[in-house]
Amino acid sequence: MAPAANGVEEPISSSLEDYLETIYLLVQEQGFARVKDVARARDVKAASVSIALRKLAELALVRYERREYIALTPDGEKAGRRVFSRHRLLTRFFEEVLSMKPEAASEQACVMEHSLTDEAMDRLVRFFEFLGTCPSVVESFKRCPLAQERAGKAALADAPRACTVCTKKNEESSMSLAELRPGQGAMVAKVGATGALRQRLLDMGILPETPIDVERVGLGGDPFWVRCQGARLALRRSEASSILVHAVEETAPAK
Amino acid sequence: MLATATPIASEVPGREIRVALAGNPNCGKTSLFNALTGARQHVANYAGVTVERRSGSCTLGDNQFEIVDLPGTYSLSSYSPEERVAQDELTAAPDVVVVVVDSTQLQRHLVLLGQVMQTGVRLVLCLNMADEARAAGQKLDLPLMEKLLGFPVVETVGHRAQGVANLKEAIARVAAAPASPSRLVLGEAMDEALAAIRQHLPKASGAIFASDWMATRLLLDDRYYAGRIAGMPGGSVAIEKAREQRERLQARTGLDIAVFVSGCYSGFTQGLLREVCTQPCRPDARQLTDRLDAVLVHRLLGLPIFALVMYAIFWLTFKVGEIPMGWIESGVQWTAGALGGLWPAESPSLLRSLLVDGVIGGVGGVIVFLPNIVLLFLGLAFLEDTGYMARAAFLTDRLMHRFGLHGKSFIPMLSGFGCSVPGIMATRTLESHRDRIITMLVLPLMSCGARLTIWMLLIPAFFPPAWRAPMLWFVYAIGIVLALFLALILRKTLMRGDDSPFVMELPPYRLPTLRSVPIRMMERSGLYLRKAGTTILGISILLWAATSFPRPPSHAHVETARVESAAPVSSEAGSPSALDKLEYSVAGRIGHGLEPAFKPLGFDWKIVTAMIGAFAAKEVFVAQMGIVYSIADADKGSEGLRKVLARDYSPLVGFSLMLFLLVGMPCMATVAVTRRESGKWSYALLQLGGLTGIAYVLSLLVYQIGKLVV
Fold first, then answer.
1. Phi then psi dihedrals of residue B410, to 5 deg
2. Region B467-488 average pLDDT
3. Distances (CA, A) of A81 to A20, A73, A108, B148
4. S-S: B400 plus which of A44, A59, B145, B405, CB 3.0-4.6 Å?
5. Distance from CA of A199 to the nearest CA of B (A)
6. Which carries the bigger pLDDT value, residue B51 or residue B423?
């Protein structure tokens, strides 16, 4: 939806918006737009262009100057610029933030530029401006396992440590087993390791929603001695830090 | 699960029933296996010690059982060699599988039962350590448990052989009946997924490959089985279906597939126990273990206590060992005297020389150290069986990790003080190939019991009494420091890579049974004695021949009966005739040939000649020196030989020699077992060449610099 000229709320179709955008671009680039330029740019027949132009002229968005030459009315120019800026912003978002390939990003932008409401667009613009002022957010997202191509659920467990900005906040909600002190107990939230180590931890009874207690830590902070499902287990700090836990109340220090 | 209509195992009378024992590490499976078969078998409290396939047999009435003890595994996955072996045994379709669990650890141990149930085999569940569970107040409704599971459940106490008759009877009963359909319920989502995969599993390759268990392996993306299934007709379809189901389940539950599947087994166990366990173990049942751990693994006291324990074991080995050593020495001396007395004095008999100088001189000098070996192995077996070994790994991991080793490397290296061969064999407890190879390569630097023979000869020969104990300590310390240092270098160069996981169960303390420790001790001492009886006997004779032939023509038949002559030995031993004779022999010629290479280290041809023997087996060095100087060292201990050595060589040469024998030339048995355990000659040759090269350089430096200083 786009506000039509004269302030009258009137819907114009996506394809008309595309024409406006094309004309806007042509005028920006070469100073003028002809029917055949538009036809070539949009890869359609000249006849189709004429039909579209007639509609746009009815909406007072374009006017014919000499024979083939088309000019945008002030309203038309505004609408064209609006579509184009949306396109440019969305393309950049897909390309620079979400790491999509330029062609795919542009294609996706072409589809979305028409369907975003003004409000969504406005918020997106503001969010994008925020990303511009805080590039570390984009950087930490790109480093995050969740941004990788084949990210699965496992990536979610590793994600909290990837973001430097948010580490502190994530720590409050869940922490790793390695952060517990001797005598502290917790509930396993996620077993974040992979492969043989994860299978071993699971086989030893370290499963989500299982209580786990740190009983002692070796001299110098390594290895960890934990109790889980009645078994005493020894694991290194590095392995303990792959197990995320929810804190529960401290167990009595004297056993 | 498949309701397989396979033929009844004992339809044919007298047919052997193949039974596999499966269970977690530390469930007492091995002692149960002993109780069933009566086989001599090693029982340990250290996680994962049984890696070899062990089998035995027993009978009940007409039934003959062939029993295989599977390695202790926490689950049936394909990550560790133990798990691989256990799976392979199950795919070989035994007639009956007995799942052995620790009754006090049901929640964790029954997970394996769920996995075995999926294979569709005939099953017996064995609740081992039932006495401990009862003592802890656990009450189980066994009839209900049998009804819910659909197969017999038997309580046993493995180390006291209780319930074994019931177990045998249950096995025979199960083998005689058709396999009943499994009553395993893993939850709707999992069961649906398995059914969907199972449809597409290749049917032709046997029941196991069409089972729920195989479907689970594929669901878990097990590369080992995916590889095997992929090669079967229609296999790739099954793998594709498994991938679909995996993605579906992960999307549906939001859990990783491994976590989800483990949760399913755990849920089955929980559900079962909720029904049958009318009273769980009291939580405070293991208080004794906790109280012991509070001291033994104390943050500050733990390591000093461990050092004390090791000191006590070494004290036992070497101080207490002196008493029986005296008896053996006099026994050997008496035998030599009695044998020599069969010939007239001054007899030139070749046979007499062979028996007295070669056989008794060589083997006698080695058997003398049997008490040391027996006592050291007794101490180590005690530590393993009580569960303290795992604590030692916990205490030492930080140190070992710093040198690129694993806490579990500590135990094999400790065993290396007894003998490198069992030490290298013990590296099987290490899960990562890289850790195993590094431990194996540096393990010969742990001064073994055989080398103690050499130190006992050389240290008193070259150092005053006040220096002897520190010197012995120093030699051991050099070996340890060098081993750690080399491990670190290997880790940084040839054996680079990520650390292997250090996740280890610490079993509760248990008193070793009077049966298991002596069995272990005898097994290991037997290894040593066999070595003395075979390899060393053969080498002693070979070396005797090499030092006796060819005889110099002018001095033929002048050999005198030196065994009976005690005091004047030293003056006589250096007599030109004996030396000439040796120089003329094959060994002497080899020694002479190699002398230029070893001259910069301070060694003369006699030492080099004796070192040829040391490569065959370290302790042969002493016997060989005895033969070189024509002194049967069984006679009056090694006093005579020590005097000769002190006369002929400086303490600096003595130290250079000790260094070379400590670091270089791991014995043939060590090289052979390294080749076998590592699977590659290149590792064995790297060990041999690398250590000998390092030894040469070290001895060269010590001798050359020492010469400048002294």
1. -65, -40
2. 90
3. 8, 12, 18, 74
4. B405
5. 7
6. B423
Give the tokens for residue B672: 């052979």
CB B108 within 8 A of CB A231: yes
Check if the beta carbon of residue B615 is closer than 8 Å to that of residue B533. Answer: no
Residue among B104, B266, B501 minimizing CB distance to A207? B266
Could you count the other beta carbons within 10 Å of the beta carbon of residue B5?
9
Note whether A204 contacts B74, CB cutoff 8 Å.
yes
Q: How does residue A105 score in pLDDT terms, banded at 50, 70 and 90?
A: confident
Starting from the edge strand earliest in sequence, which strands make up the sheet with A224-228, in order? A175-176, A243-247, A185-191, A211-217, A224-228, A231-235, B503-505
CA distance B53 to B18: 14
The pTM assigned to this predicted structure is 0.68
The DSSP H or E segment spanning B145 is: helix B142-149
CB contact A223 to B (< 8 Å): yes
Structure tokens that stand for B295 in this block: 């001291």
Report how far residue B174's alpha carbon sits from residue B4's, in angstroms, rounded to the nearest whole number: 14
Identify which of A202, A218, A235 has the shortest CB distance to residue B259: A202
Tens-digit pLDDT profile for residues B298-314:
888 998 998 888 888 87
- Distance CA(B88)–CA(B26), nearest Å, equals 21
For residues B674 and B436, what is the distance between their CA atoms, to the nearest angstrom?
10
- Judge: A196–B501 Cβ closer than 8 Å, yes or no: yes
Integer Cα distance of B189 and B257 in angstroms: 12
A-B contacts at Cβ under 8 angstroms? 123
Pull the structure tokens for residue B508: 């509760």
Instruction: Provide the ipTM.
Output: 0.77
Residue range B163-193, pLDDT digits in tens: 999 999 999 999 988 877 888 889 888 999 9
> H-helix or E-strand containing A192?
none
The token pair at B428 is: 């099987």
How many angstroms separate the CA atoms of B634 and B333, rounded?
6
